[in-house]
Amino acid sequence: MYTTKVLGVAAALALGLAACSSGNSGGGGGSTGDVKGKTISFVPGVSGDSFYITMQCGIQAEAAKNGMKVDMQAPQQFDASLQTPIVNAVVAKKPAGILIAPTDAKAMVPPLLQAKQAGIKIGLVDTTLSKDGIASSSVSTDNVAAGASAADALAKLIGQQGKVLVIAFKAGASTSDDRQHGFEQEIKKYSGIKYLGAQVNDNSPAKAASIISATLSANPDLKGVFATNQFAAEGAATGLRNAGKQGAVKTVGFDAGPVQMQQLKRGDVQALVAQQPYQIGTQAVDQLVASLTGKKPNPKIGTTTTTITQDDLSKPAGGQAAYKTSC
């Protein structure tokens, strides 16, 4: 994800060596003799987001298997100007490796290039960089495939007929762009659906609500919306509620944190595309350990998503998809 601003959770989450109590480790660890006692610095996209907290749990658990320490620092907003000084501070501490979700594919290249030049191994999680060769590995959701899954889910909800809109949360963020592109490619398969294009809400629920209001004024027969993160979904729900269209216009949201699950329960969205952040975390550690121990890491790993509806909330699928708020 990632993708969201802080939602009133603490700015920094203390990480220890204890493993999280649940979740699939996703890998067998590396050579503990070579990495034991070394430190991994985790720099997520934003503080307090359940997607990154769940990823943190995976990182912490897999690092403990390898006898490694983990520390974490996160920006208060998903913003490269806030993440860059954190990376600079981390580099000064000289950890063995950094796992980071770059908040901007271009702007985060210089500080991470500096980290690499300082001899620190770099692993990307969730988001990517515009420049190859800086990171030894990249583990993230296959967001193009996730966008396609959202298109299929929305098409099913509206009976494969009508006008649909995408609300993208941030232009230039690889996750947002890829979800949009995946949706756009897949929705072409449905001849009865007219795609109205994508508009960017810049992580602002108010802006997303305004987008919905303007779209309904021009297209009162709007049938569906793909909201690419929780703030887009929150604003879409507000816009539809204000127009008396909630439920009549179907919405597919993204992620399965507490806020998103409440959105699904209330009917603000009719489906969610859930990622697997815990597995991203464990696999990212495995690839970093491989890099640190002279093995060849997998340069790119794409994890899958699960689409859930209200019917899944009382089933195991719903519980398994839900993100953690603590480890």
UniProtKB/TrEMBL annotation:
Pfam families associated with the record: Peripla_BP_4
State the residue spans of region: Disordered.
295-327
Q: Quote the SUPFAM superfamilies the UniProt record gives.
A: Periplasmic binding protein-like I
Q: Where is the Periplasmic binding protein domain?
A: 40-296
Molecular functions (GO terms):
carbohydrate binding
> Quick one: a GO cellular component term?
cell envelope
Keyword Electron transport assigned to the entry: answer is no
Question: What is its subcellular localisation?
Answer: Cell envelope
Recorded protein name is: Sugar ABC transporter substrate-binding protein
